[in-house]
Amino acid sequence: MTPDVFIYDTTLRDGSQREGISYSVEDKLKLAQQLDAFGVHYIEGGWPGSNPKDAAFFERVKSLGLKHAKIAAFGSTLRKNTEPQDDTNLQTLLAAGTPVITLFGKSWDLQVTDVLVTTLEENLAMIQKSVAFMKAHGREVVYDAEHFFDGYRANPGYALATLRAAAEAGADVLVLCDTNGGTLPWEIEDAIRAVRAELSTPIGIHTHEDSGCAVANALAAVRAGAVHVQGTINGYGERVGNANLCSIIPDLQLRMGKSVLPPANLARLTELSRYVAEVANLPPEKHLPYVGSSAFAHKGGVHAAAMLRNPASYQIIDPALVGNQRRTVISELSGRGNLLERSQKLGLDCSGEQAGEMLNQIKELEAQGFSFESAEGSVDVMMHRLQPTYEPPFELIDFVVMVEHRQGRGILTDAMVKVRVGEQVIHTAAEGMGPVSALDTALRKALREVYPDLDPVRLDDYKVRILDSETGTDAVVRVLIDTKDGARRWSTVGASPNIIEASWRAMSDSLEYALLNLNKN
Amino acid sequence: MTPDVFIYDTTLRDGSQREGISYSVEDKLKLAQQLDAFGVHYIEGGWPGSNPKDAAFFERVKSLGLKHAKIAAFGSTLRKNTEPQDDTNLQTLLAAGTPVITLFGKSWDLQVTDVLVTTLEENLAMIQKSVAFMKAHGREVVYDAEHFFDGYRANPGYALATLRAAAEAGADVLVLCDTNGGTLPWEIEDAIRAVRAELSTPIGIHTHEDSGCAVANALAAVRAGAVHVQGTINGYGERVGNANLCSIIPDLQLRMGKSVLPPANLARLTELSRYVAEVANLPPEKHLPYVGSSAFAHKGGVHAAAMLRNPASYQIIDPALVGNQRRTVISELSGRGNLLERSQKLGLDCSGEQAGEMLNQIKELEAQGFSFESAEGSVDVMMHRLQPTYEPPFELIDFVVMVEHRQGRGILTDAMVKVRVGEQVIHTAAEGMGPVSALDTALRKALREVYPDLDPVRLDDYKVRILDSETGTDAVVRVLIDTKDGARRWSTVGASPNIIEASWRAMSDSLEYALLNLNKN
Fold first, then answer.
1. Contacting B residues, span 277-296, partner chain A, CB-CB under 8 Å
2. Mind listing the domains of chain B with CATH numbers?
3. Which residue from A493, B55, B78, B119 has the least number of CB within 10 angstroms?
């Protein structure tokens, strides 16, 4: 199947320009495999001339056996007043051995004179020679027209002349780049229609998020006839970021009716988004369209009720299409319907009296400062506890946490825990970086004696919020804990004027949840 | 000046639907003051019928003396087969006493029949009667046409009829809502042009981010003639979020040439964005267009070099226009000038060597997780400590904090403190609601023996933030403390992987600051 629009992923190159991202060669190879399995058509692997890591990537990616995606190497047109065979940059690009070469050149007269410091004519020659050289070596050439829209605004004739130089030299696609991210959708459309009236080479689009329109700009380009879209997974990129392919692909396919990827691949989008976040070592952004964990979460009472009557009321697509899922956020505002839905998922009975009891407990705890809307782990544990036959996997007897500052010794932190598991009483102690960490370590140490399966369960995120902070150190503290066990992840909550008690409650819910679900996979 | 486009802020209502946000009445009042000072034209305060907190807000906001913004109360049109005077929802809305009432009604036939479960005619009557009732009570009426674009797609005639019902009843503005967030910019434009051909009432726009186009959709609406834009600061909102006013306002003003706010107000946008994040207790999102700390950060080598030649190369605007700043990502130094200015205020010498020493200390502490931006108290104390003749008013020897959970006794918390004041060693203990409160109480008890003047000094606010929360309970904790002494108020900071140590540092800075300034009034 030939897609209506080709996806050119630059997560590995432009995406790595995001502040805080630094991929190893291994990371890039893992990402390339996932991107290929997902089905993007091109993977821009890096800029071989710019650093040794990228050169190593191009060497090693050849033996990965990618199935669908073509690998592209990125670099600039040749230096002014140079011939291709003497230009080290072009030679390095060639040496990367990729089927696709992406060359970027200047479209904006101001950039030619101020940054390249050369003549407008010489810039045209640089573009023409570079593209022709790569074509003569049998490569597919993607020509990235940097700053195209700024250039087109400043001097449309010259901007078009740069594209013509690339087209006549044989470029396979002309990618118009909104490098600064300041162009608006209708400006993109107008410019692309004007280019298409002059040139028959296929057109691509590369946008940035600086005015908040990166996705809309890419869509507007496709509407005007672009057939190649560049972007990154999760919108990672320099400054504010690149166009987010996790929004663009479902928009093109599900809202604009374009054929981009097989539907089965689209259903892996959420997984891919989280995988990339994981490798980038960034927390998955909850509020990304389509793939964020909040994308299909419903909090408002009115919305939650209407969703039960008709799911189309407040969701744009069936979340399964992109591999995501609907969530009903449980809070004091939720009704019985929300609870029922959740308990059915767990295979528990939570109707009638139990639902009433549970809503009362939630209300009472929320009045104390708990918040269940992002703590489904605690909600699930509470549902289990309400079952008449439930036996908790452990029970707290005592704990002591001690933080000491002793002159000359610095800070010392220890915790003691005594818990009952069935008939057994376990009494142990541990130290930690702080009081919560010491308590967590001691509790795990105690439970591991009976439940060795807890080993892979890891605390993944720990958040504290002071409620009504104006009451100073007596304020209620809410603690939210995220826990991970391989692929599963759950959140639990605790609240108290005492941070240790609040943490204890979230922590013990989390481990109780883990023990309830250990044998369920 | 009449703006080209009116900004209708719904941070307090729709924005609070974001998962994890839960504002107190105090929070909402503080936010309303900042939004007003910034210059938004309307502030939607909440849904008075839905919960007691919103009702309290409307009562108390009246005495705030807002200067520019009009306060709006939000609610639905009346119930089916009811008259306005018998409808509790409309009565509650009226009782909120706001100059503006925002009524939302159904535009989508499917929603009328499936969710309201009434006839299409009855829905028109509900809209007409509700709007007319509020107009008869002298209120400005904003009519929110929920699901307008979905409705227009399904049944354009009926969708237009609902708007006509509101317009003929006297609505001041008809706001077309893309409630599910699935509409694309050109669809928005086409629909608005069609509506404007039929009705002369001013048109507004309300968009959501579910397809990644919320900002572009709002801009497209203005291009098609909308003069009222609804959104939230930072794009907070249900599911993925609402249209982000922090992108829309600069786009309208700086890229589309619309007059929205005085330029001096626009320069406070970044500050406002971070203030709202602070009150929402969410970390400021670094990658927001215009206002994020990465929005004008340059990492790529090529970009950084080109920026030196010509700043327009890789930034869309001068960041000062929105109160943000350019950063080159390497390391950051605060200028000596800032320190000099502050030390002169204190009557201290902080030039030359001392300034260098101080900058080093700040850099080192910030790398550990401190943040001095909002902790001038700690900065002042640090300046005093660098004076060669400085003698600290007290010195810590030891402390111990103990939290115990004992079966049958609940939670017990005690702290012991040993400090030196001059030649005297004071050793005492206290209990508290939690470990930090116990330590604070013990320290004050010790110091009061020597410094009875500390009595009126009160801890006023205590905030905790987990940095790099992904490292779980070993993450660095930053504590910010606000302290009050009659009219004076100061902030201090501490950071450590141990929350008790972080709190101790902020707390002892705070009391040291108090003792330095006690005789200065």
1. 281, 286-290, 292, 294-296
2. 6-261 (3.20.20.70), 395-520 (3.30.160.270)
3. B119
